[in-house]
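Supplementary Methods. Inverse-folding protocol.

Structures were first reduced to a discrete structure-token string of length 108. This string, shown here, constituted the complete conditioning input.
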């Protein structure tokens, strides 16, 4: 018999992965962060395909897990946004420097 995870077990797994994403973001471990994000996306897709009937206690637990996942997401963003802004600035300044070089040749 094939085991089909419940929605609650999928949310619990997503919550555990999101906590690991926070750790990876704090450590600037972008490769791990990306891998974990892909795992969460796969679980999210499984949840979207599943329409479980749940009891009141399961709905309450589901709500708590979603709140924890959202808090973890906010913490990950707090660590990744400054890094992303640095990348944007770097790429933007590099593009601005290249434009005159392409038009006029190296300036130094």
């Amino acid at each position: 018999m094939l085991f089909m995870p419940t929605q609650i077990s999928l949310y619990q797994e997503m919550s555990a992965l999101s906590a690991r994403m926070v750790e990876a973001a704090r450590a600037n471990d972008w490769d791990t962060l990306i891998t974990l994000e892909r795992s969460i996306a796969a679980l999210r897709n499984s949840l979207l395909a599943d329409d479980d009937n749940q009891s009141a206690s399961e709905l309450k637990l589901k709500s708590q897990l979603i709140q924890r996942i959202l808090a973890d997401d906010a913490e990950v963003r707090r660590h990744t946004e400054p890094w992303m802004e640095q990348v944007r600035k770097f790429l933007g300044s590099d593009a601005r420097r290249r434009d005159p070089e392409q038009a006029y040749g190296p300036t130094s």
